[in-house]
Each structure stands twice: as C-alpha cells, then as structure tokens.
Amino acid sequence: MHLEFLFHNLILHGLEDLFWCVLVHAKKWERLVMETSLTK
Q1: What is the DSSP secondary structure assignment for residue 1, as one 8-state letter?
Q2: What share of the chain is helix, strand, coil (3-state, %, to 5)?
Q3: CA of 39: how far to CAs of 5, 7, 33, in Å?
Q4: CA 21, 27, 18: angle at the middle one, nearest 5?
Q5: How far is Cα 10 from Cα 24, in angstroms, rounded to an integer?
C-alpha cells in the first residue's frame, strides 16, 4: 500500500517535471524561431 502510493507519487511528479521541461523548451524554441524569422 505504502509502496504503491510512493510509486504513484513518483510518476505524478515525473510527469509534472516533464511537462514543465517541455513547456520551458517550447518557449525557448518559440523565441528562437521568432528571432530567426525576424532576421531573415
């Protein structure tokens, strides 16, 4: 029971971290694309 809860928590936090990582990278790529399109 306790181990199951811990495992579930780990997955939840892992997904949350992944989501934020993707979000941050998406913002960076968006800025990069905007900068390159402006310089062209």
Answers
A1: -
A2: 95, 0, 5
A3: 51, 48, 10
A4: 15
A5: 21
Pull the structure tokens for residue 7.
């495992």
pTM of the complete model: 0.53
State both tokens at 40.
């062209």
Question: Sign (positive/negative) of CA torsion 9, 15, 21, 27?
Answer: negative
For the chain (40 residues), the mean pLDDT of every run of 10, in chain order, is 87 94 95 88
First-to-final CA distance of the chain: 58
- Six token digits for residue 32: 């990069």
